[in-house]
Amino acid sequence: MSENVTVSGWDVLDEAHRVLRATVAGVAAGGWNRPTPCTDWNATQVLQHAAGDQLGFAAAIVGDGWPTENPFAPTGVLAQDPIAYLNPHLDAAAAAWATVDKSAETAPTPLPLGPLPAWVGAGAAALDAAVHAWDIAVATGQPSPLTPELARSLMKVAVEIVEPLRAFAYAPAITTSATEDDVTTLLAYLGRRADWTA
């Protein structure tokens, strides 16, 4: 994995990009066709979707460079190494977010919600990257890339954006007990089971 990656300066987004890169790099040969928690998508399709979403966040900020393929209709076919495919998408998103002042009242996003408070927008991009890293990790036999600290940060964002997007991007929330850990709580809020297996 290349160390020459672009960082955004938004800590949660940079950490989410790091875990997505590490997860993609950790997929063993033959793992890209495995089923994932994203119904009807295999690991390759989740990667294409996640990469396309990051490009969408970048394009919303800079005004061009939109994905040429629909992130919500991934083909499942990659013409290059997965990391080589992913890196330019994450670099574009990081470079775009690096231009957004942390004190900015709002920032553009590709979400149906439109512009959001800048920290929420950067967090939304992070949420997308990190949760799809989890999808790929559990699909391919890797440990969860979500730490309790990252999950807590992402949960603050999730409560700001998920409910209006339930029918569009997130499954219904799964009921959990108050004693569940931070990662399980986040995943359940997003409609995912922490104990999912293929």
TrEMBL record:
User: GO: which molecular function terms?
Assistant: metal ion binding
Coiled-coil residue windows = none
InterPro entries xrefs: CHP03086, DinB/YfiT-like, Maleyloyr_isom, MDMPI_metal-binding
Matching entries from SUPFAM superfamilies are given as: DinB/YfiT-like putative metalloenzymes (SSF109854)
Q: Which residues form the Mycothiol-dependent maleylpyruvate isomerase metal-binding domain?
A: 13-137
Q: What is this protein called?
A: TIGR03086 family protein
